[in-house]
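Appendix C reproduces, verbatim, an entry submitted by the partner laboratory led by Prof. M.T., so that reviewers can inspect both the input and the predicted structure.
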Amino acid sequence: MEPQNLRGLPRLLLEASASHLEFIQMQSCPEFEALPNWFQNLTSLQRLKIIDCPKLSCLPDGVQRLASLSHLKIQLCPTLSYKCQLET
């Protein structure tokens, strides 16, 4: 799937490797809108980078339960950044 057309993470990603996935980088996905609710099930995820996803507007509630997550980078996501500024 081309990143330009990606609107969300495919369900296959969860089914194939959720318990072992340690790193996700999403970059230059102009149509990507939201992380799925099942994202909180990625229990081994240590690093998450989201770069240049201008339509991404929120993170799922379960992100704070990702106990293994030690590095989070969100860059060039203006919709999400604006929403975070409003909520703080």
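The longest strand covers residues 23-27. Additional entries are available on request from the coordinating office.
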